[in-house]
Batch of 2 targets.
Target 1
Amino acid sequence: MFVNRLILIIFTLFVAVDAQAGLDIQRWTTPEGARVYFVENHDLPMLDVNVGFAAGSAYDTPEKSGLAGLTQGLMSMGAGAWNEQQVAERLADVGAQMGGYFEQDRAGFSLRTLSSPHERDQALSVLAAVLAKPSFPDKVVEREKARAIAGLKDAATKPEYLGERAFMAAIYPNQPYGLPGDGSPETIAKLTRADLVAFHDTHYRASDMAIAIMGDIDRAGAEKLARELAANLPQGAAPLPPPKVADLSAGKELVIPHPASQSHLFIGQPGMTRDDPDYFPLLVGNYVLGGGGFDSRLMKEVRQKRGLSYSVYSYFMPDQERGPFMIGLQTRRDATDEALKVVRDTVKRYLAEGPTDSELQQAKDNLVRGFPLRLDSNGKILGYLAMMDFYRLPPDWLDTYPKKVAAVTRDEVVKAMRARLKPEDMVTVIVGGQRGADDGK
Amino acid sequence: MNMKRSLTAWFVVLSLVAGPALAETVEQTLANGLKVIVKTDRRAPVVVSQIWYKAGSMDETTGTTGVAHALEHMMFKGTKKVPGGEFSHLIAAAGGQENAFTWLDHTAYFQTLPADQLALSFKLESDRMVNLTLSPDDFAREIQVVMEERRMRTEDNPQAKLYEALMATAYEEHPYHNPVIGWMNDLKHMTVADVRHWYDSWYAPDNATLVVVGDVDPDKVFALAKQYFGPIPAHELPVRKPLTEPPQLGEKQVVVKAPAKLPQVIMAWKAPRLDDPAKDTDQYALEILSGILDGNDSARLPQSLVKEKQLAVDVGTDYEPISRGPDLFLVEATPADGKKVAEVEAAIQAEIKRIQDQGVDAKELDRVKAQVIAGHVFQQDSLFYQAMQIGEWETAGLRWQDLDLRLKKLKAVTAAQVQDVAKRYFVDDHLTIGTLDPQPLPAGQRFANPISFGGGNVR
């Protein structure tokens, strides 16, 4: 489907929320130490559950890069008394949908099931086994390693994959956020079943588990459910959090040749944390720069005025430690230099000038008034519960969100953006057209 | 056709969702032919508004492919009252999100807004239904953006190139032959007059369906629709010629060479569109068959090809009978490293033959139906999806009132029907096979993905 102007909304998602509806979030900790966030809602006869662990790619090492992701991927391929086919059948028989997710900090699972007892209980029993008793059969380990390696080799022909991988490696030269979640053919080939078992034992622990529950179940049922999910997981200390992120000391430009008709550009540096004191000024500030779709300066300068790109955006990805700030766009090869100059000039000018009063107002209006859109489905609410629970955000984080956005001043935006974004230190990755070379204008 | 309909309203209650969010769907057709469909969903103070035009790439002609999509871009470039950029600005200021999509069968525009802002959507959408400026300057810039979009989505995407080639091979007469985004040569030579002609031909209330889902009062929505869209006159639409694809007279093959590491294969059999939801049966049986082959992780194709035989790293089916034109039943697979496309094709054919010869068992059938039933509930969680489904049905010439009937029909499909459609539709003479023949990147442009802190593969 050809969604013309898709780009924009995706990146505000990391950030926006407001709480005029005032979600009634219930929180508790199970005897095993699992943290639970729960919203009871009986509008639809269904239940959503999300479990998250500190088991993302930040917990990989360069030598065993890809281990965290492979572990998570294999947990649902055989668990407890069931082989992988039986796991899949038991879920499908009751119409349940289970999916894994894998990020820098977090890894986990989400489950959507009908709330009727037979369907619900069968689906949850599968999730509980997957979390506590994954069997990692040798045959499946070998097969999945081969699939992962095949996928990596294919991905290495794709400009967007090459560019993002190089960008992350360059802005995190000495921190595991620079490691790709899917590893490399060499590191994947060396992983063993014992590595997976050990990673599971140390990173999927009840005492470090974030459980989010949303939907058609009462409090007593939710408590029972949470205990059943946590009951058979190992106890023990949480893994050490990822190390601090260092500032880049000098700008860097990397060119990766590729025959594609467009160049893919990635520009940025380490950005902000989940609990960043400048979270809201940066959120509003980035809306004006490149987060606000057609409201943003990058979109106006690059696409609207010059027709240089279909998609252009910037985002701060808030992580436990400072996640990436990235500007992304694609442009025809012979326009690479021009597009890059427009982007760099736009950033510099914005940092020098700051937002106009009307730009600032527009950003705040969209973020505050658009708040109900962020919470208009069980699925979206579950996503916020899981995120707040995992990152241990204060329980009123949602409730205070719109007020905090509304209170942001122009000075705060200017100060925060200037403090955080240093054009002279940014990394630029260009995949495709070579600057000033064979295909320059 | 200039359809004058009296103001009629049907009231149907969707019975499937119990509880306080009780959904109710109602429709009215304005005197100018605009059909307005409202579904209430009061779980959140939010509304989705979508306007669907029955004008997609299948209505285009030779030399101007991509014009439906190019106009979609131009629809954001302003009217006399709402100059360029202002549409998006106003929606964003109201806290909304907006976008549009063009497909083979239709073009649709949508806004998601706080529920009390619905009037803004109608005001802007009714204005650009008739008052679009379409300046040559704007067009000259925007067509560049469209070409960038084509480069991004298709030119540099081997899988998309393969799909484009497959469609152009499977369909010879029917305009599904052409890609929605248009051929690059047509985009290069498109003019603002082409776009203007398209707009003048198809953008009219009697060629549109307005779908609203959310926390709204249907009577107020109808009143608002009448206020904003009512004054727009109906208009003579171009005659729609019958568009068909004649029976295929033998297997067809197409090969695409592009930079990639893994090959890919798409097998496409001709299959029917849903025409009469009450009388049709094959379409439902084919949907269930698609579920049996690929509906879940335990389904036959992933089980056999990916897990057991390890011939493929990925496999999937696609059959969507809600369309204006003739459909395809697709099976796509990515062979595993070192495996040949021919082996994978043979394995897919063997799985189909197994169903043709031995049928499917009751457990498998029940499993697929359990997913259909649960899926129907899960879909109610998304306002956008609910509106999408209504819009797709209506624009394909079906009635949203039959959505429940579809569920009943799917539940009633028997094992014998599944076996029967497997026999009748999966015949080699009606098959088109597309293959991606992966090419290495030019010398000096090959990259492994070595790992070290610091990113060793760049310079």
Target 2
Amino acid sequence: MRVSTAQFYFQNSLNMSTKSSELNEQTPYLSSGKRVLTAKDDAVSFGSLAGYKNDLSRIEQFKRNITQSKNHNELNETSFSLVQETMLQTKQRFIQANNSSLTDEDKQSIADQIKQHLAQVLDIANSKNETGGFIFSGHQIDKQPFVLQANNSVIYQGDSGVDQLAIGSSISVNINQPGDSAFENITNAIGDFSPSYNTNVGGATVSSAVVGNRAAYDTVNFPPGYTLDFTDADLNGQLEVVVTDSGAGAVTTIDPFVPGQAFSFNGVEVTIEGTPAIGDQFVLSEDENVSIFETLKAAIDWLEVGGNAANTSQHDIDYGHILSQINTAASHISAQQGLSGINLQLIDSQESRHLDTNLSLEQAKSSIEDLDFAKAVSSFEQSQVALQAAQQTFSRMQGMSLFNYL
Amino acid sequence: MSVNLYQTGVSGLSAAQQQLATTGHNIANVNTEGYSRQRVEQNASTGTFAGNGNYIGSGTYVQDVTRVYNQFSYKEQLYSQSNLGYSDTLHKDLDQLNKIMSFSGESMGNSLDRFYHSMHSISDNPSDSALRSIALSQASLIVSDFRSLNDNIDQLEKSVNGEIQMMADKITGISFELAKVNDQILQSGGGNAQGQPNDLLDRRDQLITELGEYTSVNTVVDANGVMTVMIGGGSTLVAGITALSLTLQAGDPDPNQTTLRLASNNGQVEISNLSIGGALGAKFEFRDEHLTTLRSEVNRLAMAISDTLNEGQADGLDLNQQNGANLFTDINTTALMQGRVQNFSANTGSLAASVEITDVSLIPTDEFQIEYDGANYQMTNLSDGTTVNLGAAGAGTYTTVHGFDFNEDSGAPNAGDKLLLRPSENSASLMRVIMQNEDNIAASTPIGISASDNNISPGSVDVITMDDPAAARAYVNGTNSGLRVDAYLTGGNYTYRVYDAATAPIPNPPSVVGAIASGSFAPGSTAVIDFPPFPATMAFQIELSGDLTGNGALAPEIFTINDAFGVGNGGNATLMALTQEQGVLNGGGETFNQNISTSTAKVGSSAKSAELVADTAQALFTQAYNRNQATSGVNLDEEAANMMRFQQAYQASSKIISVANTLFDTILSAVR
């Protein structure tokens, strides 16, 4: 085919400019080490690449949340473990106090020690975190949760709010434990009712009073505050219990009453140890939960009575109730510590999961995005050689003209 | 005889001279663009009858100087030129758009990430002012990213329009040149047996080649050698010696979408942007398809982000216990709603309309045209051409399936009036952070639901709609002292009641004396309760779902709804932070980051395809050019050889003259 002079120059200059721009285009890829700089480089993989980058930054976010939630939960765990220690010490002191050879002064000094324990638990319950918010107030972090009253009782000013942080794509972890469930809602050792012994000549104890059958527990027709009167109306030598509700309406009469054996009325099951005397009256008030501060206050009050108890057998019964409540409180606190520990375990497992996921995502991202240096450098060399060849060919051929020989 | 010989010599001489002149002309024009090499057609002169039965030849004469020109290979080159102009221009523009989008898109994704990071830290520590301020400034960064991308797109549109204007002016200039050349060719007798004005023809072809870069060109040559030039889909640009000019008209209704007009002394004719071809066609395609779609997508994303975060704010309470105010500009301000509708200038009616967005997840990137046919509004989707009858005029509000309502604000249309609807218009340019005070970030949830410890069934009660958090809280905690919801299974259905928790005593089920709300629902379905109940304005709704069997009438499942506000409550901030993971766009299928990467990938793949097409077009053009050059191009070596040839012919012819002279001298000296 005939080649015109213009065509020759056009072709060669087109070649050279194509080769040199090919060479030029490879520079940004080589210098950044990436194969995909803009979407045009690989539009199909760009979507996946963007997805990997998103996932990686999501994991970064989760890691930040993990650090925060770990700090919060560790603080909670430490606080509970301190409270637990204090409760164990209180229990020891209270056990010591059950020694009839102790004088009133000795009992007062034990009471003073338990007062200090109360102050310590109060202090821990009112602790703040690094930002100055109360950790046991639920959502009301600017209000002190537990306030001591003049009569040594404690009221709760916080709420039940629980905050969560996301530590995985559908996993959140609690970062606080509100004061009410931590310190107030401790199960009553007796059950769902607290007994008050209006008259207790016989020295009997209510050992358990629970709502055994909620389906039969009617609080509307038989409002709680159940008064148990022990009589022997039918004079057959067997005690009966007359149960009346808070509106003085009759509930039922238990006949015969057997000490130590559970009897039930209106869905409530009661067990009484010991033999009541005729005329004894107990009142069962609804009291599902007992606060730890109530328990400590009850212990202090008990000790301060000393030897001046009006009814020594009742005083001993009260001792039993208080000691079992202290026990229950200690194990409740230990369970709260367990909750923090479970949260920390969850956080740990998420953290290691994220490390693994992070690694595999980085690998996947790198396999799409990163430049294969060996291939890139050798193709850069190739382009260089091609450019040189084009340039040399041109300079050789353009010197060849018939006019040189005329 | 010698007289004849003399004349033969002279004819040979003059022919050789013309050959040499033509060869010289070719050599001189080796670098002239569009030059077709010329060659001299020599013919032998007819012989004279010599009397003895022989015809003696009498030399040569030059028939014609023609240019070596193959109109078919030229037309092929012209066609490839237009294609190359088109694909090269489109490739360059899309390349630039790809770079802008890749880098802007990444920056937008990063600022979204940082904003959500700050929301997460607010949910960890809701009372910290510093963290809240950081969130507000991150929100401002998102806004500035959107506005700068929008500005970039506006800038591109302006510069494309400028380039289109320049090209139209160039084409007009060429058109006038062509008319002049046509005139000159006509004057010179154009193309008949008297000889062709080769250089004029070359000049005209060169002009056509230049024109071909900008647009697709067709030519027709008439009997007088005058060429009619048609561009685009067949609109005449040059009719013989009359030139038309190519002008631009502001678009209707969007003035930035300029259209082409061919203007002559008699008036203007519109040419379609779609069939123009060449670089001009590429510019129109870039502006009207790629740029418009991208702008629509960016606007829609801005709208989705504003709406989602504003709705999240509206569900919670801020540090001042007020309902969360809008963080970004509301997506249905009057300015935005009206800006989405554009009137055609030919409208005669007085209708003012607006578009209100009802569901961001359904908004498409398409544009719509509404035409009033005299009775009904017909809405056409301009991307796929489907038409929907919205109904008769005068109804005020028309709901569509695309997540927006078309509202008549005032006035009435006349038959034939048309409106252009762009549902997401201006969302990016008018996006602002309108919250001034960081305390207004609504981190707290207003109310919370807790289940009683004595519940035994796995059902649940959840808040599903929150219309007015402050009113919800006031109702739960002020009007009532907490709400108590109980439910149990009886007679095959779950029966529920809601009481003020302070009611004492709360009667046993199934009595509903004094209940705020009560009812029942079948297992497998759910119950939704509004609070405050009808006819008061609803502030929030709860939903009872799952298994709520309970333990008989005396021990139902019990749930309490309480005030949950606190400065340490970061529940709503958590919900807002989780919107980054939620599918919001495209019917709930795409998160914000996914949407950004989809838009970027789309531009990237268009740019890649344009590059491949440009490479192919370049190869095809080179082929066609080579073929054309093979016929018409000047080869210096060939011309050098020709020069030798014609020089020798000249020398030989001059020898003939000298021999004829010698012969004459011989005869003269013989007779003396």
